[in-house]
Amino acid sequence: MFSSLSLHTIIHVAVALLFPPLLLGVINRVKAVFGGRRGQPLLQAYYDLWKLMHKDSVISQTTTWVFLFGPVVSLATGILVALIIPLGHASAPLAFAGDVILAVYLLGLGRFFTMGAALDTGSAFEGMGSAREATFACLAEPVLFIGLLVLAKLTGSFSMIDVLGDGVAEAWSGATVALLLVLVSWFVVLLVENSRIPFDDPNTHLELTMIHEVMVLDHSGPALGMILYGASLKLFVFAALLVRLTGLAATGNPLADWGIFLTGTIVVACLVGVVESAMARFRLPTIPAALVGAGVVAFFGFLLVMIEL
Amino acid sequence: MMLLLIILVPTVLSGLAMVVPWNQWRPLLIPLAATLHLGLVITTLSGGETSAFDRWLAIDPLNRVFLLAISCIYLLCALYAPGYLWARANRSNRVLCGCVLLFLGVTSLVCLSHHLGLMWVAMETTTLVTAPCIYFNHNARALEATWKYLLIGSVGIALALLGSFFLAYAMIQAGSESTLLFDELVEHSHKISHPWLHAAFILLVVGYGTKMGLAPMHTWKPDAYGEAPGMIGALLAGVLTSVAFLCVLRFFHIAHIAHEDRFAQRILVFFGLLSMGTAAVFMARQKDIKRCLAYSSVEHMGMLAFGIGLGGMAVGGSLLHVFHNGICKVALFLAAGNIHRAYGSKSTDEVTGVIRRLPISGVVLLAGFFAITGSPLFGPFVSEFQILNGAFEAGKPALGLCFLLFLLLVFFGMGNTLVNCAFGPLPEEGTTTQFSDRFSVVFPLLLAIGLTVLLGVWTPEPLPAWITDAQQFLQRSPAE
Amino acid sequence: MTNELILVSGIGAILSGIPAAVLPARFRIGQALSALVLVFANAVGGYAVFQRLIQGPQAAVTFPSPIAGARLIVDMDGLSAFFLVPVLLVTAAASVFGLEYWKSSEHPQSFRRVPLFFGIMSGAMTLLVVAQDGLLFLAAWETMAVSALILVAAEDHIAETRRAAWLYIAASHFATLCAFGVFTILRSMTGSWEFGVIENAHGPLAAIMAALAFFGFGTKAGIMPMHVWLPSAHSQAPSHVSAIMSGVMIKMGIYGIVRVSTFFPDIPLAWGGIVLGLGTVSAILGVAFAIGQHDIKRLLAYHSVENIGIIVMGLGLALIGRATHQPAWIVLGIGGGMLHVWNHALFKSLLFLGAGSVIHTMGTRNMEVMGGLAKRMPWTANCFLIGAVAICGLPPLNGFVSEILIYTGLFRVLQDTPQGPVQAAALAAPGLAVVGALAAACFIKVVGVVFLGAPRSDRAATAHEAGRAMVGPMLVLVLCCVAIGLLPAACVPLLDTMVTSWTVGADGIPSVGTEFYLTPITIMAGLLIALCLAGCLALRWRGIADAPRGLTWDCGYAAPSPRMQYTSSSFAEMLVKLFRWALQPVVHAPSIRELFPQRARFESHVNDTVLEKAVMPAVRGGLWLVRWGRYFQNGSLQAYLLYILAIIVFLFLWQ
Amino acid sequence: MMTALLEPCMVIAVLLNFYILSVSRLKMLIVVVAIQGVILGLMYPIVHQGFAPTAEAGLDLIPLVRLLALTIAIIAIKGSLIPVMLNRAVLLADIRSTVTSVIGFVPSLLIGGVGAAIVFVFAQQLPVSPDHHSPLLIPTSLTTVLTGFLILVTRREALAQVLGYIVMENGIFIFGLLLIEAVPILVELGVVLDLFVGVFVMGIIVHHVSRAFPEASTEHLASLKEL
Questions:
Q1: How confident is the model at residue A264 (pLDDT cuts 50, 70, 90)?
Q2: pLDDT of C33-64, one tens digit each?
């Protein structure tokens, strides 16, 4: 099940661990361009992480160990998921049959402890944030799953390296519409899961309107760094899912594949930036509707696959 | 001689009870008579004489079962009598004791008689001897109950007489000698006149069914059971209804020999389901514990009729159910009697927390409730389950499902009454009487519920063999 | 020998309550002795299960039955052995918990009858799963059901408890009577009540039997529309009783369904579909109802509905597999579902025990007045948290293992069938995903509101940790949860025995371990734990232990109070609204009309929709009909005599 | 010869039934029922005579004794003991002297008439043995039973219901005339004795009832009910 320690594995681990913060920079840069600003350096997230790791922290009196465990788990699960999904090559260091489910559930575990950490502070706002996060996750998760069902149906497997492997590229010719629908719905999931506009505004300054950001208000220093890093990993994971889903990174040439993959993730980040710049944040009650809409889109894709084959 | 003794011993003791002047010692005659009776019954059944008076009295496989059943059930009630009557020392128990003792004599006579006329006379006498017992409390409600019991019972039994006459006439019609002797009827009934047999059977089932308490002739039951002392309720529900059932079985037997099974079975199933349904309706939201038990008795009489109507293994179930229902009803009625004494009420409005106020009676009530509703591990389950299985075995799953449905509805109704009064807070101080769970009034309950449990896990010999015999006796092919 | 041993174990358990019931209350020696006997009896049972695993099938033990010609059979087959594990483990743990939770000094009314019937119920469940004939099964079944009634009604002076007890026994008796029907039909088809494959199981009778089994046993199990009794009974019973009711007793309903499904040689596809469908509905709506609850035990009870739903989904998948002859689906479905039986037994009883120790110190089940208990009762809090993670099906704990098996099976449906309506079964997978997410939302709510944050009441501020007898059993259960989560492969032998016994005589049934390779789960769990440890060490290395403590960031408010924390209802509000169509929440909101409004109160609660909107109206309608019927007994003697006349006339006309 | 007497007796019995249905005075009712009883008692030897002494067998003594004893017993009980007892009850308990009907006298009479007609038609359907009895016997018997039932169902007063019961028994007794050889004397005596004791006990209860309730109509006895 585990691929041997090949060059691809080494590249995979390196990319998974080092590349993600760059995407945050890309998004910021795109938004800056749209706003007519120069914006932060592309590598700003790396600087932030470095700085946070060296800062001291203040911890709320009401908290317990859960408060600190939240960032740790969210980072750990992020890393594991990044090692499960295929990146530039149809393999992954930790791939096994059924890892699709593990990946989704690992993200769930991360979310669980992030919400726990938020509730541990006893702040009304952080509670509010975690309630919203919980609600939207309930709606986003099935969308992801229906998409996976489509892929599993098309590729005849439910291991990440097959589902998002080379089979997808072949499937595009047969089930273009279905895959497009999945792509769209997953992009919505990406926006929700990573707390992006139009579902959440990471840069807002009013706690009442936040979702994800408000949950981590009390974290500081290395813990906050872990959260930031974990968030970038999550963004990277979803971007990678989208890129693998397009099936473009399956040319057969390893170098080209990795190149296409990395470019692809940056393109996804740019897209996120564009959406963030072009759209306003949804009203809170609209969000479930939008998510259910994404679910319906994915379900339609599933129906297409069922009927076509 | 033994057969005569079975009838005479209680009758003589009844006469004795009427002359014994001591209110305190008189009740002891009841358990004495019951013990002697059981002894005599056992001696007789284990190989004594089988017939007397030209087969006017006889023991056959059918009434053997019933004789044993009524003797056992009566003994359980009898053991309770002294304790209960001592608790009611302010009231003369002369008439009650006399009647209760005579009751044993005449029910034995009903059991043993092989002559339809004699059976009828004895049956009518049971109505007369139980009426004063129901009136024991001497209040307006008891009076009303007695009046209704007496009149409905008499009318019913009068119809049974007409039915008996019809039956005898049916024999004349068939060209054979007119007779009311059971053995002769059975012997010749294959050539009986069918229209008259039909009419006779209907009247007989309605008539003796009135004594059994099948719906819609059951209307006296809630009143009589509700107002009579618990012990009398137990006797009526355990003994009287059983012998009435025996009478119905006698005629079913004749109908069977006359190849009228389908007709007879249809009627019995009809009455069975109607009784169970009626009981279910009236048990819902029933506030009166004793009336609730009375409807339960209606339900179980329905079960008996239903089981016979189904044929096959259900017949055995029905016969066994006579024991199980009777013993369990004794436990329930005696417990209800204790509760009535202790609370001065039998309404669920006042009766709550019985398991605290009367720990033993309360537990027996609860256990008896589960037993009578057919919970496994209790006797009634064994028989009810056989009746149910009989329905499916006979290829009538719809009837079986109806049976289950009624069991469920009855459970709901009865449980809502009994479970709710078993649990709950203790009533306020001063609202209840001084009565408490003394040994003399609880050991018969414990005995009865213990027997119920015992019968639920083990059917002692020779009961299974006797039941099988009785079943074969009932179902033996008319050609033989 | 194993069958005799398990019989001894069951009977020992049944008798175990006697010391507590008869010995003097003062030194609690009776209770301790009872718990000891029960633990010992269950240990004997455990040894028997182990022996069965090693030695294979043994000769059955038979007894004469009260019904002539039938016999009672005790034989531990694979299915029995599998279900015995949670029965033995959880009842033993809960009985030790009860030592301290249900002290004679605190419960003078019921301290005798609770251990007595606790033992009876435990033993009855042991005997239930080893019974191989309808009569013994029914006897054990009813003993269990009635003992549970006594246990639920332990605090019968409370009116609500009595109502719950009554609702419970009414539903339970419905289940019992359905079981009557099932075994009766079994006998009418095979000629005896003994369990075994019915050769000619076709026609309407077989369908009736299957329906009775599913809806009857499903009522006991608490599958969605039949779950009405479950929330109130679980919340009103003493917590250690809730633990065995939810952890084990409702599994007996599942056992019933599973056992009866072995009687049928062929399963129609529709049965599997219905089972899977109702399982999914049960799982989703169960957790949705759970989210709306403020009563911690009611909430846990609804999670039982959810988890039963998951188990039933697995079963449904396996039935579909049997209908379409797909061994992989069978193995994954039944394997996952039954492993979830174990898992749910472990973590749900753990959670109920945890809730019990919270209730013991708080004196209430209302979560809205709790908060911050993790500081005051860390052992309970941590155990509860682990249970919460496990019940959400999150890695690296046991809930995940069973769910991934079911997921895999559902995915296999897509993979193994090229087309056809069977594929729709795969849609249960996203359903399961919704369930997982909702469960996570619900449990983070419970953990957050009860254990995290600041105390919302004085009682919560002065709460104390539970004693050793209460924490110990919880730790045992935690250990089991973790063990299955980390080493699921260890369960494979028993799972395989169970699957073999379920698929009587079928060829080509692979091992669970080959259908789903479990070792990666162990590795991934190890990696996850290692990474988390590393993260924690990193934080410690960065000096987090000495970090200064400050106030929570209060967003600029001057006087924050613990009452301002997000409560359980506020946390759930959005989700409750999403499921408004099913939950029908009742909201008592103040209407503000003046400029300076008076003190106002906002309250919302979620009642059981099925009970309030379907069952109660039906009961009321029935009673309305009955009232009409009662006019017949109107006290008039003339009327009564008229009935007699009428029935004679009717019969003469009819015949 | 004897059967010639039988038919008028039966016609009288049927006509008495109608009269019973229309009588409203309690004392009169008691008297009429008693008369009916006496007529039945007289019918007994008539029927018996009709077939018992056949030419070959000659006059057997034992049946004769039996015949006489029973006739006397029946007439004594039905014709004098019971009416006297009921009259005593009326006097002692100070019972209102009129009978009321739930549905009115005319309707009950009508129902009685229609019922009698139906019964006569119904009796035609039943196979009757071609023996020496009057063909009227069975319909008369059933009509009387029906009349008794009608009284039981429609009359409010407890005592009237007792009388209804007696009328019903009379009807059954008429049917019993068909079965003289089947019913042994012991049983016959038992039946009559039971009737007597039954009515006696009922009388006692009526007495108690009228003490407990000022007007002894059974409508006052309707406190035990579901509702």
A1: very high
A2: 999 999 999 999 999 999 999 998 889 999 98
Beta bridge partners of A60: C550
Is 90 exceeded by the pLDDT of residue C121?
Answer: yes
Contact partners, residue B202, CB within 8 Å, separation at least 6: B163, B267, C648, C651, C652, C655
> Are B379 and B455 contacting, i.e. CB atoms less than 8 angstroms apart?
yes
Q: Which of A2, A112, A157 to mutate to test the interface with C (most CBs of C within 10 A)?
A: A112
- The shortest C-alpha distance from D96 to chain B (Å) reads 19
* C635 in the same domain as C531: no
| Closest CA in chain C for residue D160 | C638
pLDDT tens-digit readout, C79-119: 999 999 999 999 999 999 999 999 888 888 888 899 999 99
Radius of gyration over every alpha carbon of chain A, rounded to an integer in angstroms: 19
Cβ contact, residue pair D153, C642, below 8 Å: yes
Domain of residue C304 covers 267-505+514-539
- For A181-190, B217-226, C150-159, D42-51, which range has the lowest pLDDT when averaged over its residues? D42-51
d(CA C379, CA C468): 10
Q: What is the complex's ipTM, to 2 decimals?
A: 0.92
| Contact indicator for C246, C90 with CB cutoff of 8 Å | no
Cβ distance of D168 and B222 shorter than 8 Å: no
Instruction: Give domain status of residue C209, yes or no.
Output: no
Number of domains in chain C: 2
**C 360-389 → A contacts, CB under 8 A:** 371-372, 374-375, 378, 381, 385, 389
In the prediction, which pLDDT does A308 show? 67
- Residues 71-100 on A with a CB inside 8 Å of C are 71-73, 75-77, 79-80, 94, 96-100
- Chain C residue numbers touching B307 (CB-CB < 8 A): none
C629 vs B contacts (CB less than 8 Å): 278, 281-282
Contact C532 A76 (CB under 8 A): yes
Contact (Cβ atoms closer than 8 angstroms) between residue C518 and residue C489: yes
Extract the tokens encoding D104. Answer: 């009115």
- Which one is predicted more confidently, D51 or D69? D69
**Tell me: the pLDDT tens digits for B320-372?**
999 999 999 999 999 999 999 999 888 988 899 899 889 999 999 999 999 99
**Rounded Cα–Cα distance for residues B253 and B251 (Å):** 5
**Chains touching A, CB cut-off 8 Å, 3+ pairs:** C
Q: What is the pTM of this model?
A: 0.93
Residue C364 forms part of a structural domain: yes
| Predicted local distance difference test score (pLDDT) of residue B478 | 61
DSSP C92-150: HHHHHHHHHHT-TTT-TTTTTHHHHHHHHHHHHHHHHHHB-BHHHHHHHHHHHHHHHHH
User: Are C522 and C622 members of one domain?
Assistant: no
Residues C646, C522 share a domain: no
From CA A12, how far away is CA B266, in angstroms rounded? Answer: 82
Tell me if residue C588 falls in helix, strand or coil: strand
| Token pair belonging to D196 | 């007597």
Q: Where are the domains of chain A?
A: 7-308
Domain extents for chain B? 2-475
Cβ–Cβ under 8 Å, residues C391 and A109: no
The answer to whether residue C633 sits within a structural domain is: yes
Per-chain mean pLDDT for chain C: 91
Domain co-membership, C357 together with C465: yes
With CB atoms and an 8 Å threshold, state whether C635 touches D102.
no
Chains A and D touch (3+ CB pairs under 8 A): no
Confidence of residue A175 (pLDDT cuts 50, 70, 90): confident
Do the domain assignments include residue C237?
no
Identify the DSSP state of C233.
H
Rounded CA gap, C129 and C139, in Å? Answer: 12
The answer to whether residues B156 and B217 touch, using CB atoms and an 8 Å cutoff, is yes
